[in-house]
Amino acid sequence: MAGEVHSTRLFRIESDPTVLPSELFCQTIWHKPEFYNNITELLPDSPVCEVSLTDCARFWEAKILIRHLIEGTTSGISKDSTEKRFRVIHGLLSGQRVVDSRPCQLRVNSQYELVFAVEGREDSSESSHDGHLAAVVDIWKLRLHPANDRSLPIMWKGLLNNAINQINFVEESNSKLMEQLKENDVRVSEMTNALTRMTAEEREKELFDQFSVVLNAKKKKIRRLLRLLKNKGMATDDIAEEVPMVVDEIPEKSKTTKRKTAPKRATASRRGRNRTDSDMTIIGEPLVDIVETNSADPPSTMDESEI
Questions:
Q1: Which of 142, 146, 220, 278 is the most buried (most CB within 10 A)?
Q2: 3-class DSSP state of 76
Q3: What is the pLDDT of residue 49?
Q4: Number of domains present in the structure of the chain
């Protein structure tokens, strides 16, 4: 039955600071704790649990048998009281501090005994409400012995091995997490750069669209102005060459142009005098120069077909 381990508990307990450190670690290996329902029917040498304590420098151990619980009871104690006492012992060795609604206490005294105590008399239902034991009653004591094995006891070896394995697992997990974190940082940096480029390209496209709208509006105004000048006969070939993308070629002047009469020249001169300075300039050239250029043509009194 000794090999039928049910569970293991590890917790801290109080101790006498004059003899032992103020903090001890207790580990308990239980052998079927559910048998307390028929505790008086079991063999006296049946194991209940194995207890091991350490202050991280020294080790103590003890084994609880059924006869220890029975011998610890006084004569006249009923079966119910024995089972109740076992529930208190089981609860304290499992790390509990309240059993059956009664505050309990587990400590180590100066005689290296593991003491199990409850508040008030064992058969009393009175309890304090301030979280402290009003009248502590020791219901049982367990003598601790130094560990026979000079090395760590087997149960502590297994516990430390599990702790070391868990630490190694945590370190490996942390290493993997750090690698993933670095990869995520690289991805975030790449995504940030890509987003910056996309934002710059989007902004550039938006500005180009706005520039295109303004440019098209200017082109339309230029086309209307040149069309107006062409209709009035004031546009020249030089103007057409300056704006080739918005103005069609202006047809050349016919060689058979008849000689202009004096009244027409006077009318043109008069029209030029009536214009303001802003009207006398067409794309950088004074309107007077255009009129003088037109009037400088050699006089001709007949068409070429009549010669």
A1: 142
A2: coil
A3: 83
A4: 2
